[in-house]
Design a protein that fits this description.
There is one protein chain. The protein is about 25% helix and about 30% strand. With about 220 residues, the protein is α/β, with parallel strands linked by helices. It is globular. It binds ribulose-5-phosphate.
């Protein structure tokens, strides 16, 4: 099976976690796009969605699924999203699609996080994928130096030769070379640096379940 077929497989498998009559939390990325496409088949039986990015909102609305503002919704039973890396305890690196801050907000509002990923995303330790960090532009250089002091190399993410602006109007640093032995401690530490909006390590908002697309089918990992 191709990687794209594995993404379709887990995107469709995630439908079993969607609760009829409720609002579902929706992440961002190519795997989530497969989920959104599959969700269209259930659109009459759900109230709608809370979305983690402008891109997912546009896709949901194009399929006729109502998108609620997060502030209009008190609790969400399930959040479905992809990951750039996931370890054996459900900790993840996310933000390859630059939507990490809104993803963490919707995840925090949700009782259960169902991660959908192809098997290439499963790792024994986080950190091979450069960690995305959303930062306030005026703090970018100082935060780069703080990562250098930790042994990391932070690169400003560019789009068409200019700094990429997130949906929140901020910048992304992609940090490689880090050893993330303790994801919870790492997330707590970096999140309190002045100018950091969100670090793309999801340990406090880890996955409850991962639907992993493998050549043998969908494997369900529960944490
Ligand atoms: C976006 C994300 C995505 O979930 C992550 O990048 C995985 O994306 P894909 O499903 O395209 O591999 O965190 O900010």
């Amino acid at each position: 099976m191709t990687q794209d077929e594995l993404k379709t497989l887990v995107g469709e498998a995630a439908l079993q976690y969607v609760v009829p009559g409720e609002i579902v939390g929706v992440g961002t990325g190519s795997t989530v796009n497969k989920f959104i496409d599959a969700l269209a088949s259930m659109k009459e039986s759900i109230r709608g969605a809370v979305s983690s990015s402008n891109a997912s909102t546009a896709r949901l609305e194009a399929l006729g699924i109502r998108v609620f503002d997060a502030n209009e919704v008190e609790a969400i039973s399930v959040y479905i999203d992809g990951a750039d890396e996931i370890d054996g305890r459900g900790h993840m690196i996310k933000g390859g699609g630059a939507a990490l801050t809104r993803e963490k907000i919707v995840a925090a509002q949700s009782a259960k996080f169902v991660c959908i990923a192809d098997e290439s995303k499963l790792v024994t330790a986080l950190g091979k994928f450069p960690v995305p960090v959303e930062v306030i532009p005026m703090a970018a250089r100082r935060i780069e130096r703080q990562f250098a002091a930790m042994g990391g190399v932070a690169r400003l993410r560019l789009k068409d030769g200019a700094p990429l602006a997130t949906d929140n109007g901020q910048f992304i640093l992609d940090v490689s070379g880090l050893v993330i032995a303790d994801p919870l401690a790492f997330e707590s530490e970096v999140n309190q640096w002045p100018g950091v909006v969100t670090v793309g390590v999801f340990a406090h908002q880890k996955a409850s379940v991962c639907l992993l697309g493998t050549a043998g089918g969908v494997k369900t990992l529960a944490y």
